[in-house]
Amino acid sequence: RYSQKIGCEHQVLQCKAGFEGYSSRRASTNGICPTHIVDPLEEPVPGLGTYEDFNTIDWVREKSKDRDRHREITNKSRESTVALLHRISDAFSGWLLMLLVGLMAGALAGGIDIAAHWMTDLKGGVCLVGFWFNHEHCCWTYNETFQERDRCPQWKSWAELITGTSEGAFPYIMDYLMYIFWALLFSFLAVTLVRAFAPYACGSGIPEIKTILSGFIIRGYLGKWTLIIKTITLVLAVSSGLSLGKEGPLVHVACCCANILCHLFTKYRKNEAKRREVLSAAAAVGVSVAFGAPIGGVLFSLEEVSYYFPLKTLWRSFFAALVAAFTLRSINPFGNSRLVLFYVEFHAPWHLVELAPFILLGIFGGLWGALFIKANIAWCRIRKTTRLGHYPITEVLVVAALTALVSYPNSYTRMSGSELISELFNDCSLLDSSQLCGYVQVGNSLADRPAGPELYTALWQLALALIFKMTITVITFGMKVPSGLFIPSMAVGAIAGRLLGVGMEQLAYYNHDSILFKGWCSAGADCITPGLYAMVGAAACLGGVTRMTVSLVVIMFELTGGLEYIVPLMAATMTSKWVADALGREGIYEAHIRLNGYPFLEAKEEIEHNSLAVDVMTPRRGDPALTVLTQEGMTVGEVESLIESTRFSGFPVVVSQESQRLVGFVLRRDLLISIDNARKRQDGIVSASQVVFSEHLPPPSPEAPPPLPLRGIMDLSPFTVTDHTPIDITVDIFRKLGLRQCLVTHNGKLLGIITKKDVLKHMAQIANRDPDSILFN
Which PROSITE patterns did the record assign (predicted)? Predict the structure, then answer.
């Protein structure tokens, strides 16, 4: 029934499209909004107006439904106090839902953080005081020097428990084997649970979230089973030591929470467009609980994920992100949920001359990001097109075994990704026992010092760790386990940045009188901060992979608390994006969307082609005519035969086969549900009954069965373009209005139809890609 009003209400939605000269008046064929519709369906029909799996929602229809619902509530609120209270509760329900999403996502993220930290430490040993304590909590009360803090008597390695000693070759081999055993066990459990109970729980989830937010339906992707299995297997996958992170999958977890909680509120349960507003806010919550960055999370959702992001969603997103961050901190105050994940306090400010190495890190991040995307997509294609894809458990176990085998001897690959990044961001103090701080001490100052043997050893280990991380991450991302890319990308950049930072530090120490350093770096001064280079490198590599810009800089600021380092971060991030874009326009998430064939129209992709709408529509020149329904003259049996003989998602309705004058558009699903409902609930509806889409019923005939009026399910104002509309304008209409289909006319006569799939296939042909890679309509 809401379709009666769509024709009169398209002005607001067309203003959103932002096209000058585009007609703001849309109505039915006769140019007026109908005032009377004969509709025998006195009660709402179950399933009418809903969507099938792997279909795109009609944004225009959903927004019109919500306006009708809101108008009805507003009008009734003037009649009684109860109705007024209902209006107030309806307005408040969005904030209440955001509160629940923040609480649920924060609680789950806190549990994941605690469990992953404990299980990661479990690979190295166990706490004698209580096996449920991780290494940090087990040694929390040990009052020894900083150097001996990690060797508290309460924590025992597996070799100490089995052999009674931790010194010698045999205990080392024993710890090595136990490390590999736990890594294989955790990875096996993760991939088995995903394959058996929730196949949608694998991967990052962000490409699918972007596709869903653009209007695509993937049933079960945000369901309760996916949430349960992803939460469990994310802990297992991270704890196994694979080169992956939990930050991307936490966005998926938060969106699952939001989708489940939406069913508690009628406004969001019955409207797909309103639900996607909540999912956009949930994406911000996911980044907030991953990094403790509420502002960066909202900007990430706005910049990278969301398709439709109104102003009210912006404020609700920030509110939910704050609730989630503080919930996480309350649950796990000593873990990675503290307000700043990688707190830095550098002793020396950066100098303008250092912008050159910062930009160099940006170039490295852009090069690595572009090469990583190409290599990862190539590996994923091999996985899909060969027998390798038929053995996901074997693949995961082989990669886990290889990762554990190579990682254990090197302390920088053995530690978790977040611990490695924290170590690389660290600025050395006088009492720091880290190998990265193995300088030759000169006095009691923090001035630049010559590198000692321990530092040189650490640099060799970091160089090997960099090569290993860059290689193993390519084959790890995309396996059938939950896998994020934020932490591995940041780890690669942080290693490269630390190596460059130490090199610059030693160059300044031995050449402080050179032109490059003279005037700002004198002898005995603390000039270069290697930890800052690690931070800039981490941002550069993450930006090269994801093509994030402003949101990435804000996330890095919230991660480290370093407000004064925004300029170096921005310089490296923008350089990284420019270099990566020069080698390939797609980020990693867009590349995986295209690899999986999802119907996603990328807003950043430009159309440089002079084709017209007539060149893209179906049917093409020389093809059979378009399958249509007439507003009168067809029987129920003929309509059912037409539906059974075709697989189209909808049918244009015309005045007659001869005139082909457009009346409206009706969806296949709505037709099937309405005819089935009429046969069950209305007397006399048989196959010979005439189907009527016109406003007034034809004169009754005593011999004929009663007609079936279906004008109420028809869209009286389908979006149309003329046959000479340029394709770039047509694509913009699809992007900005989120259309499923658009009809092509010539002087009011129907010529064809353009679907979202047709647009994507045409864009693939322009880009010399396989048009049949678009899997779903």
Answer: CBS
Instruction: Tell me the pLDDT tens digit for each residue of 56-87.
Output: 888 888 988 899 999 999 999 998 999 999 99
Residues 198, 222 contacting (CB under 8 angstroms)? no
Contact 223, 259 (CB under 8 A): yes
Q: What is the mean pLDDT of residues 596-607?
A: 82
Q: In whole angstroms, how far apart are CA 139 and each of 133, 157, 325?
A: 9, 13, 26
Cα 237 to Cα 251: distance, rounded to the nearest angstrom: 16
* Peptide bond preceding 40 in cis form (omega within 30 of 0): no
Q: Which residues on neighbouring strands pair with residue 746, listed in sequence order?
A: 749
- Model pTM score: 0.87
Closest CA to 650 of 777, 774, 760: 777
Give the pLDDT score at 137: 85
Cβ proximity of 449 and 209 under 8 Å: no
Q: For the chain, how big is the Rg over CA atoms in Å?
A: 31
Please give the distance of CA 361 from its chain centroid, rounded to a whole number: 26
CA distance 350 to 568: 9
**Contact 554/299 with Cβ under 8 angstroms?**
yes
Structure tokens at 701: 């005939």
**DSSP β-bridge partners for residue 612:** 726
Query: Beta 741-746 vs 720-722: how paired, if at all?
Result: parallel
One-letter amino acid for residue 395 of the chain? E
Q: Distance between CA 113 and CA 367 in Å, rounded?
A: 32
Cα–Cα distance, 494 to 345 (Å, whole number): 16
Return the SS3 of 183: helix
Distance CA 731, CA 24 (A): 18
Three-class HEC string of 185-209:
HHHHHHHHHHHHHCHHHCECCHHHH
- Residue pair 308/276 in contact by the 8 Å Cβ criterion: yes
pLDDT, residue 255, reads 96
pLDDT at 462 over 90: yes
Instruction: Count CB-CB contacts under 10 A for residue 379.
Output: 17
Asked if residues 706 and 685 have their Cβ atoms less than 8 Å apart, the reply is yes
485: DSSP letter: S
Count the Cβ atoms, other than its own, within 10 Å of residue 745: 18
